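User: Structure please.
Assistant: Input sequence and predicted structure:
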Amino acid sequence: MGLYDCAPPGSAEYENPILRMDLSDPDVIRVGEDYYLVASSFTYLPGVPLLHSRDLLHWRQIAWCVPSLPFARYALPAHGAGTWAPAIRYHDGRFYVFVPLPDEGIFVTTADDPAGPWGPLRCLWAGKGWIDPCPFWDEDGSAYLVHAFARSRCGIQHRLDLCRMAPDASRLLDGGTAVYCYPEKHPTLEGPKLYKRAGWYYIFAPAGGVGTGWQTVLRARSLWGPYEDRVVLRQGGTAVNGPHQGAWVDTPDGRDWFFHFQDRGIYGRVLHLQPMAWQDGWPVMGQGPVGAGEPVARWPVPLPLQGADFAPEEDDFPGPGLDFPWQWQGNPQAAWYQVARGLRLDILPCPRGESLLWYLPNVLSQMGRDWCYTMEVPVTLAAEGPGDEAGIALLGHQYSALSLHRGAAGYELRLYRGTVTERTPEGRAEETLTFSAPWPRDTATLRLHMAEGGVTYGYLDADGAERPLPGTFPAAPSAWSAARPALFARNLYNNPGGHVLFHRVTFTK
């Protein structure tokens, strides 16, 4: 599993979190003996990663469900907007992924094969504030959609609504009816997942907020309620804050499991797997008190281990396209890059007028690989004039970057520190040059070290030894996202320039 494996070959137990990667708002289904997972992507595109597993522990990405977003605003970064908590279902031989955009509405995409191609987004409801949709097909063939609300967009944060939906998921048939709203018991109720078991309808939903909330389950004999509720998973005496939004799946032999995320700040929303059982018609999760379990740290593996790499530890960009899990900060454009025995990024002006990393749509990033890692990148800069530069960065509300820069007197190595001063989707940022030194050539091997104490940078000299650069930079999460390692090319004066070749990217522990 990249740098971290929660259950190496031969293990009898797995360790939580099973993925130390930023898989926010996961939803999971089983189809036969295969498991499929989707997660949020926000401003990073292509979006909504789809992962596959055969053992519930080792996952490999096989698709992006949303290649781009059909709105002009996503030509530029819209931090914290974009694709929020999706839901995946398999119905009548087709895969459905329901995608909320909190500022634009509820959308759905479909595919015959989970590896794609996925169809264009189809709008089910246009408007602001609906989030976290989950479809449900009942035994009589009727279809429904349950969803939550985003307080930041509409002022509601504790209500779940249910809509009738066309059985082919082509449209909603009404504007919805509130089925649960008890803010004094469950504030910030969100992320609903709707299931049916033994004649009961169940809505699994986290409450109380991402950082310190709990898992709630609602149940009723009628789809429309009234629903009774029970807290089924909470932090208790563990170190697992939240625990937040997730999904119930079973194995072919009839055992039950629950996926959820934990917000780990700069590391993002990491994925946990809890054992689950049923008692008196209620799910029992984790271990400890019946009815309000606590997350497990270790547990026997659920299935024979299969193993798979979420992402390779080295990417030498063999082409013809970008491998998983690279994403841009805006809708991808073919003119930005070329891939063939290396990644070429052209140096282009920022449409916003200032060439800050927070504003550039053509910054390429991905999720971090573990709590600590080193990212190494050999770079060749084909500069056309002063101000051209390219390098590596760790992005977030506090960010930093190391570049190979073309100055008036020749090449330099430069260190920058950035701060996001306005945390709206478009936002504002400031960058400061903290270090520069002459460099004798147009090629350098740059290193980024992610550690618990912050981020440090260095470079390899001619004999292959690392030379550390001064300073430790703070790492910080972005809007709903982890701190992300990134590649960039820009001109400081926002002029069109030359290009850069990233020969490969390597992640090591």
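The chain has a mean pLDDT of 96.
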